[in-house]
Automatic annotation (TrEMBL):
Coiled coil: none annotated. It comes from Streptomyces katrae. One of its GO terms (molecular function) is methyltransferase activity. Gene3D superfamilies: Vaccinia Virus protein VP39. This is SAM-dependent methyltransferase. GO terms for biological process: methylation. Keywords: Methyltransferase, S-adenosyl-L-methionine, Transferase. Residues 61-153 form the Methyltransferase domain. Pfam families: Methyltransf_25 (PF13649). It comes from the Bacteria.
């Protein structure tokens, strides 16, 4: 929930009428006091699943790291270099304040990671950022991560079960996505943020097309739906080894 220390309605409105980069520059100082920050419960569940499944890693990359919520997790899981990448200078400034040591921060477009980052990481993660990429951009996004990973490296991120149409949450996110489409049709620059553009089936297909093998493990702290399927899974996309 928003708090009195978080952004005002006016600040949120200004952000929503800006570009993605500029919007997050404006929101950065108060971002961690909004509901948009990845909850610690999710970060802890992902860390536990990775530690149990994979053990430790060499170097780690947090793609679209924002204010650095996932960087502490990477520092605990990785023995060597940890890097956070984001397009927003404001968000990176907050990440630098939160992690003054032990982390490299790079301002870069996730769709075109610089060549100096290629073939450098054993683990890549991302939290809460995929709504900023249109479905047509997924091949470029996954290709960029594939290039950044070493052979045998893993791209890991949580993915939720489909929301049933009978749920009020389905109607809430559908309404939000519709409002964003109208906003982007009539206002420039666009602010790309959608909640229903990252379904598991097409995502798995695009990951495989980018050269990954794909598996999932349940994030057990979040429980299961009535049909027995998990509410949240950790997707593990692996770059084949040599």
């Amino acid at each position: 929930m928003f708090t009195s220390q978080g952004p005002s309605l006016r600040e949120l409105a200004v952000q929503a009428l800006s570009s993605v980069e500029r919007g997050y520059d404006l929101l950065a100082p108060k971002f961690d006091r909004t509901p948009f920050r990845t909850p610690d419960r999710m970060l802890d569940a992902v860390e536990e699943a990775l530690a149990q499944r994979e053990g430790t890693f060499g170097s780690g990359l947090d793609l679209c790291c924002g204010t650095g919520a996932g960087l502490g997790m990477l520092r605990r899981l990785c023995r060597d270099r940890v890097t956070g990448v984001d397009v927003s200078a404001g968000m990176l400034a907050e990440a630098a304040r939160a992690h003054p040591q032990g982390v490299d921060l790079e301002r870069a477009d996730a769709l075109a990671l610089p060549a100096r980052l290629w073939n450098s990481y054993d683990l890549a993660v991302s939290f809460g950022a995929f709504g900023h990429f249109l479905p047509a951009e997924r091949p470029a996004l996954f290709g960029a991560v594939h290039r950044a990973l070493r052979p045998g490296g893993v791209f890991a991120f949580p993915i939720g079960a489909p929301i049933p149409v009978t749920s009020p949450l389905w109607w809430a996110v559908a309404g939000f996505d519709s409002a964003m489409r109208v906003r982007n049709a009539v206002w420039r620059p666009p602010f790309v943020m959608y909640y229903r553009t990252f379904p598991f089936g097409p995502v798995r297909t695009d990951l495989r097309a980018a050269g990954f093998t794909v598996e999932t493990v349940p994030l057990t702290p979040f429980g299961h739906r009535p049909d027995g399927t998990p509410h949240w899974r950790l997707l593990l996309a692996r770059k084949p080894g040599v």
